[in-house]
Amino acid sequence: MNMSKVSLARAVLALALLAGAASVVHADGAPLAHRVVRVGLPAASQGTSGRLILFAMPASAAKDGKAEEVDTNPFQPTAVSVAARDVGWIGGGQTVDLDTDGEAFPAGFSSLPSGDYLIQAVLDVGHDYNYSGRHAGDLISPVTAVRLTPGGSLPTLTLDTTVPAKDPWNLPPAAPQAIRDALPEARKHAHAEVFESPALTAFAGRPLSIRAWVLTPPGYDPKASTRYPTVYLTHGFGGGFDRFTGTIASVWSAMANKQMPPMIWVLLDESGPTGTHEFADSVNNGPWGQALTTEYIPWLEARYKMDARVSGRFLNGHSSGGWATLWLQTRYPKVFGGTWSTSPDPSDFHDFTGIDLYAPHANAYKAADGTPYPLIRDKGKVIATFETFAHLERVLGAYGGQLASFEWVFSPRGADGRPQPMFNRDTGAIDANVVAYWRDHYDIAQRMRTQWPSLRPDLDGKIHLIVGTADTVYLDGSAKLLKDTLDGLHAKSDFRFLPGKTHFDLYTEGDDRQALLKKIAWEMYGVARPGQGKPGG
After folding, report:
1. pLDDT at residue 33, as a whole number
2. 113 vs 26, 154, 226, CA distance in Å?
């Protein structure tokens, strides 16, 4: 699942209606005409294609009736209306029409109350809005104030601005000053390591690479004999190669101030066109686990002073990164010495964010009694359901969404070359055959239940899982089932359920946003260097 509120916003929530002319009506029953918005490119623009997305919000919801952008918000899922369509080609000076009562959320725009609104169009040229939101190369229109009235027309919007590339080394405004101060020195010790994988390239029929940042500790000398334990960390949904700056600065600062032990950190990019590939071998995404463990890690260990023993390789990740590292540890127990996975995506599909995928006649949207399945909560309040999440994801586009990302990893390939859907987006009905494939290949708890005798010698005691009891996307439930499974097998494991912690504050203690990561680092170091744990700890 999504690691940050920003990336979560790409995936959130609401009902999409494919509204026909007769499905939106006046109070007297007469059908409303569709609202059609014309969107164009400046005459001097080069032709392009993409997913055209229109956002609309009441002007009263913006400060002084003005806004720099109009976009979705995960914690106010119905505040912004969205309509979209694919554009196969649009040339300079040309326009296309967007029927806002076609693919729309939460309903066709003709049903919006009369009043003042702010609207903005975006052409998502990479078809990845669900994952990355607006980013370099996308085209956007100005935010435009409009008055919606029955039968009233809307102005033509011009996509006259190209989203510029962001400097990946710019820290967010909320970053603490200490981290800002550490960044210049941290950059000197962060090395981009891009490796073209033979296995992935053979699968794709084109060059595919594994990318990571390698952060070396203070005092690292490539000519010295000292070798360092290595942590393989990967991000959650919405992360990527250019979004590790904060991690690089904070980990370096902690090592420089001896709040973390000296280790090499490999910050792995698991993002791709279809979402996160989870470093799992998949018939849809390719052999990412194989490529990492048999190609990339040996290549790195030949280039850096890494402790290449099993007891010197560790895993850490949060959310989707938590699932990826839990998967890597359980799939390749002879390679890694332990995983510290936090708030991992579901590891037992009997509780897929609260849904039992294996139940007879299972439905992703509603329980047997008709109760909607919640998906996002905040301070005890349900913010969105699984159904609303799925429907908005569909409007934003076919690629890169959180739910579609699961299918690209877990599902068998369909006749059309795309992964088979786990559930019907209209009705929520779960496909039992697809779920059976998920169970046999990617249900981690099932893997433990069926393969524990052969896994135990290399895996026992290596699983560390930490999650909050108030996890924002209900990931504590699946973690409890995995714990029950391992306890039933009399396995050694370490599960921590932190009272009241959510998906977003799990690592924070007081003013320290990386307090948990510091504890984890020392625990790893104690495994790699017994007797050399945290000073005074």
Report:
1. 74
2. 11, 15, 68
